UniProtKB/TrEMBL annotation, chain A:
This is Protein SCO2 homolog, mitochondrial. Keywords: Copper, Disulfide bond, Membrane, Metal-binding, Transmembrane, Transmembrane helix. The lineage of its organism: Eukaryota, Metazoa, Chordata, Craniata, Vertebrata. It comes from the Eukaryota. The chain crosses the membrane at residues 64-83. Gene3D superfamilies: Glutaredoxin. Disulfide bonds join 136-140. GO terms for molecular function: metal ion binding. It is a single-pass membrane protein. Cu cation binds at residues 136, 140, 227. It comes from Parambassis ranga. PANTHER family: ELECTRON TRANSPORT PROTIN SCO1/SENC FAMILY MEMBER, PROTEIN SCO2 HOMOLOG, MITOCHONDRIAL.
UniProtKB/TrEMBL annotation, chain B:
The keyword Mitochondrion applies. It holds the Pfam family COX6B. Keywords: Disulfide bond, Mitochondrion. The gene is coa6. It comes from Parambassis ranga (Indian glassy fish). It is found in: Mitochondrion. GO terms for cellular component: mitochondrion. Its main location: mitochondrion. It comes from the Eukaryota. This is Cytochrome c oxidase assembly factor 6 homolog.
Length: 267, 80
């Protein structure tokens, strides 16, 4: 948006300059008889050859060159200012997220292979975290597909460190280690599923202020768990940096994570 | 009961999509789409059937809001 306004202003400025230069050159041709004082270089040009096409062409080239250089300069300045502003916005957002201070605690859960995993085990890696449950009708598979696609896209970029995808259940009663193992194999190969006792899972969820509420059980004992649908980005320091909801596309998330990784300054 | 795997999920979603397509073509008359309805109920767990019915209602409502606009309520409705 800022860039657009900058460019519009820039084009206007360049147009005005061009018109200004045209006026100068036209007035200089009128004053060929020498009645209006001119900058010496224009006078010399006008007097050094016959008026007409050659003089006009040179004047046109000069005018165009000056305009282009000026516009180029303006565009460059615009771009720099826009980049600076974007950088400032990103910084401010990170500071706001730090104040919110999500995910400060430590969780201790079991992964889908039955091994104990705590928050410490993931320090040093970038993590994309999603809370869900295996009996989820459509949203969790969709979001996990999106998450897997993001991680795969980031994997393609050799300049970036590998991102760790994580899935923590909000349904510990049904999602034990086996259920998780069965579920996560449909997604990214590096995806780790985490579960544990109801209390441990609840603590992990509360740490990230995840809302989760199991619905009523039907005659099959089946139920849906209503829960926050967010993908969390966690820095190698274990700090919650950003979140992505359902409206964010795979490309948008990939771009955002890439920017975070590139602009990251370790604590 | 174990959660549906990837293949079962897809089979349920396909049945749901066929049902919804039929309902769209038949002005939401379930009587015209009995075949798809029973296929859908067979392929999907009970909870998912209920969930998708509610989801369709919500999507229709959302579409209505977006096309026909929204008239805010007249004021306090009284004790609810």
């Amino acid at each position: 948006m800022l860039l657009l306004r900058c460019i519009v202003g820039d084009v206007r400025g360049a147009g005005q300059l061009l018109r200004g230069l045209q006026r100068t050159s036209m007035s200089s041709q009128d004053s060929y008889s020498g009645q209006v004082p001119l900058p010496r270089w224009t006078q010399a040009r006008v007097l050094s050859h016959a008026p007409g096409s050659l003089g006009a062409k040179l004047k046109l080239r000069t005018r165009l060159l000056v305009t282009l250089l000026f516009s180029g300069g303006l565009l460059g300045a615009c771009w720099y200012v826009t980049l600076e502003k974007e950088q400032k916005l990103r910084q401010r957002r990170i500071e706001q997220l730090r104040e919110v201070a999500l995910g400060q605690g430590s969780f201790s859960l079991l992964d889908h292979k039955g091994q104990r995993k705590s928050k410490q085990d993931f320090l040093g890696s970038w993590v994309l975290l999603y809370f869900g449950f295996t009996h989820c009708p459509d949203i969790c598979p969709d979001e996990l597909d999106k998450l897997s696609a993001v991680v795969s896209a980031l994997d393609q970029d050799a300049s970036l460190p590998p991102v760790q995808p994580l899935f923590i259940t909000v349904d510990p009663e049904r999602d034990d280690v086996l259920a998780l193992a069965r579920y996560i194999k449909d997604f990214h190969p590096r995806l780790i599923g985490l579960t544990g006792t109801p209390q441990a899972v609840k603590d992990a969820g509360q740490d990230y202020r995840v809302y989760a509420s199991a619905g009523p059980k039907d005659e099959d004992g089946d139920y849906i768990v209503d829960h926050t649908i967010l993908i969390y980005l966690i820095s190698p320091d274990g700090l919650f940096l950003d979140y992505y909801n359902r409206t964010k596309s795979q490309e948008q998330i990939t771009e955002s994570v890439r920017n975070h990784i590139r602009s990251y300054v370790s604590l | 009961m174990t959660a549906p795997n990837s293949t079962q999920r897809k089979s349920c979603w396909d049945a749901r999509d066929l049902l919804w397509k039929c309902l769209d073509e038949n002005d939401d008359k379930i009587s015209s789409c009995q075949k798809f309805q029973s296929e859908f109920e067979e392929k999907c767990p009970g909870q998912w059937v209920k969930y998708f019915i509610k989801r369709r209602d919500f999507l229709k409502y959302k579409e209505k809001m977006q096309t026909e606009g929204f008239t805010p309520a007249e004021g306090p409705q009284g004790a609810s």
